[in-house]
C-alpha cells in the first residue's frame, strides 16, 4: 500500500510509472497537485485493487490501458481536467465496485460497456460534458446502489429500465436536459434515500407511487415542468427530511396530509400555482408561516364591497396605463431606426450572498477551484447551497481602482440583460471584501480555445462565436438608453457555455456614454496598447 494523499506533491507522473509497482495493491495519490497525463504504464501495476488519483490536475484522456487492471475494485479520478470519451476497455474491470469520474471534462456518451461491470455499486460521473441518453442496460447491474449523472448534457427520457433497480439507494440525475414524464414505476425504488431529478425538462404529474418510498430522506423535483396537484400519498414518506418542488407548474392546494412528515426540516414549494392555506401543524410549525386571515363579511355588505372594488380597480388600471406610457416615452432609445434583436430578460437586482456561503461554495477559496487571475483579483468555481454551479469573482481591494471596478461592474450588470452577456447571480460586499457571483461557463474562455493545443474551434464555431460577440456589442452600443463601451474586449473576456454560446464578460472598465461624451473618450482604458487579433473589426458594430 502506497498512500501519499492530501499532500502538495506536484509535477508529472513519470512515463515508467507502474513498472516498479508490480506487487502494489493500493495506490493513493488523492488530493495533490499532480498534472500532465496519466501514464499508460500504470497498468503494469497489475495487482492494484485501489487506484486513487482524484483531486489533482491530470489532463488528457482516461488511458485505455486501465482496462488491464483486472483486479481493480475502486477507481477514483474525480476532480481533474480529464477529457475525451470513457474508453471501451472499462468493460474488462469485472471486479470494479466503485467508479468515480466526476468533475472532469469527459465527453461523448455514457458507454454501454459500463453495463458489463456486474459488481459495480457506486457510479459517479457527474459534472462532465456527457451527451445523449442514459444507457437503458443499467438495470443489468443488479448490484448498483448509487448513481450520479448530475451536471451533464444528457437529453433523453429516463429509461424505464432504470426503475427496475430495486436496491438503488441514491439516484441523482439533476441539471441535465432530460425530458418525458415520471412513470408509476418510479415507486419501485423502495429503498432509495436520495432522489434528485431537479433542473431538467420533466413534465406530467407527480406519480402517487412516490408515497411508497418510505426510506426517502431527500426528494428534489425542482426546476422542471411538472404540473397537476401534489399527491396526498407523499405523507407516507415517513423518513423525508428535504422536499423541493419549486419552479414547476404545480397547482391546487398544498396537501394538509404533509403535516404527518415529522422529520421534514426543509420544504420549498415556491414558483408554482398553488392556492389555499399553507398547512400549520406538524413540521410546518417550525417554518413560522402566519395563518391566513378569513374575515367574515355580512351579506348585506358584500354589494358595497364589490362596488368599491370595481371603482378601485378602474382607478388602478388608469394609473398603471398612464405610468406605463410615461416610462415607455422616457426610456425610448434615441435612434428608433436601429434593429434590436436582443433577447432581453426581466429586470431585477442580483441577490445578496453571504461571505460564509461563498467560503463554503469555493471550499475556502481552494486553489483547486481557481479558474483564473487578473489585475482585478481572482475567479473561483463554486457550488452554492442550492446546487447551482457558479463563478465567484473576488476583487483585490489593495487599490482603489479595483473597488471602482467592482462598483462599475455591478452598475453595468444590474442594468443590462442579453443572452450574450454574462449573467450576474448575486454579490457580496463589505469594507474588506467584494465579490460578484456569476453564471459558470463550463467551456472556459475563448482564449483557451484559440491558443491551446488541447482545444480547437471549427469554422462554424468561429463564425457562431463572432456573431454572438457582435450581437452583444450591438446591444451595448445601440440597445440601451445610454451607449455602453466595454473598453476591454479580448478573448479572455469572452466565455463559452456548455452549448458553445459566447458571452461577453468583465465589465470593470465599461463606460456609460452621454451624448456629450460620444467622441470624448479616446484614452486607452484597459489593456495598454493592445486589441486582440480578430476583434478589431467588431468595434464597428
Kindly estimate the percentage of residues that lie in beta strands according to DSSP.
15-25%
Helix content: 10-25%
The outline comes out as globular
CATH superfamily of the largest domain: Ribonuclease Inhibitor
User: What is the terminal separation in angstroms?
Assistant: 62 Å
What can be said about the biggest beta sheet? Answer: 12 strands, parallel
The CATH class of the largest domain turns out to be Alpha Beta
**So how many helices?**
5
Radius of gyration: 27 Å
**What's the count of strands?**
34
Give the assembly state of these chains.
single chain
Average pLDDT: 82
CATH architecture label name of the largest domain: Alpha-Beta Horseshoe
Q: How many discrete domains?
A: 2
Report what the structure shows.
It is built from 5 helices and 34 strands. It has 541 residues and is of the alpha/beta class. The chain folds into 2 domains: 2-287, Ribonuclease Inhibitor (Leucine-rich repeat, LRR (right-handed beta-alpha superhelix), Alpha-Beta Horseshoe); 351-540, Transferase(Phosphotransferase) domain 1 (Transferase(Phosphotransferase), domain 1), CATH 1.10.510.10. A hairpin with a 4-residue loop joins β29 and β30. The termini are far apart. Residues 331-349, 515-530 and 536-541 have low confidence and may be disordered.
